[in-house]
Please model this.
Amino acid sequence: EGLPPPLLTWFRGPQVLREEPGVASLPLHLAQVSPQDSGTYTCVAENRHGRHNRSLELHVAYAPRPPVLNGTLWVLAGEQ
Model:
């Protein structure tokens, strides 16, 4: 909110977020997030009278993945 209305720009880390499939702004909307979307997001509001920003940390929770077993497992007959 401001007069004149501020230009809002969203960043993820140092990268500007552009509107693209899965990303919309005002408010920022991220569709189908994954753990790779975790990080610091910053909104910068700017007009000729000044500039303000706010940041937030997004942590995407997810279910554990099955362990990956590499190598050979030897079991004697009749044992578990």
User: Anything to note?
Assistant: Residues 44 and 53 are 4 Å apart (CA to CA). The longest strand covers residues 39-47. The chain has a mean pLDDT of 88. Strands lie at 7-12, 15-16, 23-24, 29-30, 39-47, 50-58.
